Amino acid sequence: MEKLIRIYHLPYVEVLSKICDIKRKEAFRILACKKMEQFLTFPHSQLSRFYRHYQRNSGTPLPNDIKEKYDKAVKSYQKMITVAMEPYEWIKWMKDAFASSDWIQNFECKLGEHFFMKEIWFEYIQFLDEQNNVVSLA
Q1: Which sign does the torsion angle of CA 34, 37, 41, 43 carry?
Q2: Angle 115-128-108 from CA coordinates, rounded to 5°
Q3: 119, 91 in Cβ contact below 8 A?
Q4: Digits of tens for pLDDT over the chain (138 positions)?
Q5: Nearest alpha carbon to residue 10 among 21, 70, 44
Q6: pTM
Q7: Where are the domains of the chain?
Q8: Residues 6+ apart with CB under 8 A from 35
């Protein structure tokens, strides 16, 4: 089985859709379809391309629960685009859109793109301090 990579680009979705359609072992097919669901329900810039790809290549329509998650992801991504350069609004959006277990990844991604936003740095360091459970001897 081809290595499943969690990068949101269309070539990876094409590989996943081939795995979904091929009658391989059921476990591989279920795994590939779950990954495809992640591609369609996580807010990112390629959502519409993945949805069109799914529509063209799938023999079944998108299930209603996944369609609702897809619509929610599209709205969330549009909101993120509108607040991208407003640090406090972006932090509020991120905390509303993601579980706290995903905040570190979101902070690091944002800081990689916009390293000059002091407010994001401050919130990130504060979050890391709150998560730090190491006891100091001093």
Answers
A1: positive
A2: 30
A3: yes
A4: 344 334 444 455 555 555 555 455 555 556 666 777 788 888 888 888 888 877 777 777 788 888 898 999 999 999 988 998 999 999 999 898 888 888 888 899 889 888 999 999 999 999 999 988 777 776
A5: 44
A6: 0.65
A7: 1-82, 85-138
A8: 4, 6, 16
